Amino acid sequence: MSNPTHPTDDAAPPLETVQPSCGKRSAASRTGKTIFGIVGWLTAGALILYALALPTTWKAKEARVRAELDKQRQENVGAGTAQIQTARDQRNAVMQTVNAEIEARNVIKQETADYQGRLLRLKDDQASLERDLAAKKAENKALGSSMPSKGMGRKVENLRRERNRLVAEYRVLLADLRREFQDRLNTRKPERMRQFYSARQNTPFGPAALFYAAEFLYESRNSKDAARLYKELLRKYPDSAYLDAVRTRQAQIQEHEPYVRKDDVGLYLYRPLIMNGDEAETNASPSIDRAL
Questions:
Q1: CA distances (Å), 21 to each of 15, 24, 28, 32, 219, in order?
Q2: Which of 134, 206, 215, 246 has the fewest CB atoms inside 10 Å of its own CB, making it the most exposed?
């Protein structure tokens, strides 16, 4: 029978034998709390520092963005200014060309009108003098003399010389206009032929220039403007040699037919001065009316 006052080997150890183990766990717990506290304080400090540094970072980014926007704006302004200057230069060049065309048109128009007026007056004067000379011859014949008045003969001869000089100048003018017309014709560009018509519409080349400007528009599939020019040609030059060709084109446009080039139309001068007598004729071809 065992003694209850003495524990056996199987009994639990005394209380004082387990107290050291509980002390170690308390120390570890305190150490862990301390570490967590330190980490917490460090994290909080880092967050505070980030929050303090954040406005500065945003300001720096904002400054960079503004600088880039300012630079881009300046580049755009510079490019826009260059484009505006280029457009102004082009406009000035076009205005100079237009002014030159207008000036040349006025000069040609005035020269043509002067030559035509002087030639017509000379023809009238010559006809009048020739009638007077014929009457003088008849009078001399009736008096038994066949010798005309010497003074009257000299006047007629001077008029013939002046007339021949003006005819030569008129032919040179027509030759220059023909070369210019042919150059525009070879390009087959409607705008160039319309410019020629605008400057030369009162010359014998007016109807031809208007007709071929309409032809080139029709060829470039601009039937609306082509129809407008064909209509203008019929209105302004109702007796021109292009009457049949224009009416054919108007019918084709009305039927929405595609453009087909006509090589048999050619150049026909409108109401040129026709001179009779011993003056040399201009270079003529089957498709070009004789100017003189």
A1: 11, 5, 11, 17, 111
A2: 134
Rounded-to-integer distance, Cα 59 and Cα 257, Å: 70
The phi, psi pair for 217, rounded to 5°, reads: -65, -45
Q: What are phi and psi of 238, to 5 degrees?
A: -70, -15
What pairs with residue 267 in β-bridges? Answer: 288
| More confident position, 114 or 70 | 70
pLDDT digits (tens, 9 = 90+) for 214-247: 999 999 999 999 999 999 999 999 999 999 999 9
Q: Phi first, then psi: what are they for 243, rounded to 5°?
A: -60, -50
CA distance 271 to 113: 13
Report whether 222 contacts 124 (CB < 8 A): no
Report angle CA 9, 15, 20 to the nearest 5 degrees: 115
Coil, helix or strand for 6? coil
**Model confidence band, residue 130 (pLDDT cutoffs 50, 70, 90):** confident
pLDDT, greater one: 288 or 53: 53
CA distance 288 to 244: 17
Q: Please count the other Cβ atoms lying within 10 Å of the Cβ belonging to residue 196.
A: 26
* pLDDT score, position 245: 95
pLDDT in tens, 162-210: 888 888 888 898 899 999 999 999 999 999 999 999 999 999 999 999 9
Residues contacting residue 168 through CB under 8 Å, at least 6 positions apart? none
DSSP letter, residue 238: T
Name residue, tokens 């001399």.
Answer: 140
